[in-house]
Amino acid sequence: MENNPFTIVVEGDGKGCKEALQETMKPSPNIDCTLTVYTNQSQNNNDEKIRQSQGVICKLCGVHLKIKSSLKRHMLIHTDARHFECSVCKKAFKLLSHLNVHMRTHTGEKPFLCKYCGASFAQQSVLTKHTRSHTGDSCFQCELCGMSFTRNDSLLKHRRTHLRQKPFSCTTCKKMFSRADNLAIHTKKHLNKT
């Protein structure tokens, strides 16, 4: 502990110390003083807060949780139990927070507002992805050609062009496409012919 003349260290449990100090010390109008009394109990509480803030890593999936007490809640995603059911469509969720987000699909609530264009979104994560289109933050880069993208799914679509993967096929003529949107455009051509 640093050599501070205004710090008082109390050994033992510290009971009665505050009252004793209040009786012997008179406040001065010119000095703004904060008194911190350290006891074994308060030190133990502080140690626990530090342990909690260091977080924990899930042994099943490796995700890092900032707060140790979040591990119990997190472990629910590794079970098949879905205790939270939507009263509208009966879809069930493992976490209450996931049900709450889902309910916005029924209510139409979109509380997350883009500060650039005013668009609103039901989920924070969707707003974050959208915001990158305004800021130009390209944090997803193709390791093959260096091209950058604002969204991971855009990078994954782009990679298929390098790998010549074409997982989307037309049910009418069997032509293959690397992107679902290109297949959709192609499919409309068949519909327009009929």
TrEMBL record:
InterPro entries: Znf_C2H2_sf, Znf_C2H2_type. PANTHER family: KRUEPPEL-LIKE TRANSCRIPTION FACTOR, ZINC FINGER PROTEIN 384. Keywords: Metal-binding, Nucleus, Repeat, Zinc, Zinc-finger. One of its GO terms (cellular component) is nucleus. GO terms for molecular function: DNA-binding transcription factor activity, RNA polymerase II-specific; RNA polymerase II cis-regulatory region sequence-specific DNA binding; zinc ion binding. This is Zinc finger protein 626-like. It comes from the Eukaryota. Pfam families: zf-C2H2. It is found in: Nucleus. It comes from Phallusia mammillata. Residues 56-83, 84-111, 112-139, 140-167, 168-194 form the C2H2-type domain.
